[in-house]
Amino acid sequence: MLINSNTLAMLTQAVNARFMVGLAKKTAPWDVLAMEIPSTTGENIYPYFRNIGYIREWLGERVIQNLAKGEFRLGNKDFEQTEKVMRNEVADDQFGLAGPRFEQMGRNVANFPSAQLYSLLKTGFTTVGPDGQFFFDTDHPVGRPGREVSVSNSMGGSGEAWYIVDASQAIKPMIYQPRSSFELVTKFNREDPSVFFNREYLYGVDGRAGFGFGPYWQLAFASKQPVDEANVKATLTAMASQKDDDGTPLGIMGTHFVCSPTLAETARSLFSQERLANGASNTLRNRLQVVDSPWLL
Q1: Which pairing describes strands 140-142 and 174-187: parallel, antiparallel, or unpaired?
Q2: What's the rounded Cα separation, in Å, for the pair 93 and 284?
Q3: How far apart are CA 180 and CA 178, in angstroms?
Q4: What does the alpha-carbon distance between residue 48 and residue 71 come to, in Å, rounded to a whole number?
């Protein structure tokens, strides 16, 4: 095949077509875990609110809720993926061998927030959140100054971790902070060093974003206990028992069971069967939606 401007235009059209095919393929939904807060600078500075807030009876003056207890910062990072097509592949009309790579690139862009957020969730036992504790910890401080008590959102155990999240709230336990979206760019002019020296046509995507844990750790609980009725119910009860600094119930109800594919089938069985092994009715049937993510492996 003769390589000229028309050939390269057709190559780029083919790359874009395969990229768009991949872009339509998503896996685990990221919005179960995170709220999207766009960014316009190198970092976002968030007020650290300890309570979710509630409607109260108006007696006397208004009471300002959720006075910030400080602030925390979430910076943006640069991300990229670059692929090449050898000039000889184009000359020999062998783009079919390279096409799947660009479909995979589109798929990677589609799943980029999920990949980052579920990977970050896995580190919650050792990553410090806005309250100064590990995000999944046994001693989050709750209560007015001088009357604080330690509250846990980590249910113990030593096996593989699984999580229960309340995704019904407007706020979420994590933050997805997009700064600039991914765009497909090309580098195939004859004068480009990659083409001139290496006979490589380059295609890449790049974007900027930040990912982090928010202040509302009460919306996500983690456990390394076996996935069974007793442990799931204990976690749901612990979540529903959460109160704010004034002792007002937060109204948290677990909606999603989040795990790796290793635990997914056990969880689906637990939440779908009508009866337990002893013949009793399964009160957990359809109680939680299972979301499994390969980035939790």
Answers
A1: unpaired
A2: 57
A3: 6
A4: 5
Q: Which two tokens stand for residue 106?
A: 């589109």
What is the residue-level pLDDT of the chain in tens, covering all 297 positions? Answer: 556 566 666 677 878 888 889 888 877 799 999 999 999 999 999 888 777 776 777 877 776 666 556 789 999 999 999 988 776 666 566 666 678 888 999 999 999 999 999 999 999 999 999 999 999 999 999 988 888 899 999 999 999 999 999 999 999 999 999 999 998 887 766 666 665 565 677 889 999 999 999 999 999 999 999 999 999 999 999 999 999 888 889 999 999 999 999 999 999 999 999 988 788 899 999 999 999 999 999
What are the domain boundaries of the chain? 5-52+69-296
Cβ-based neighbours of 134, under 8 Å, separated by 6 or more = 124, 125, 126, 127, 128
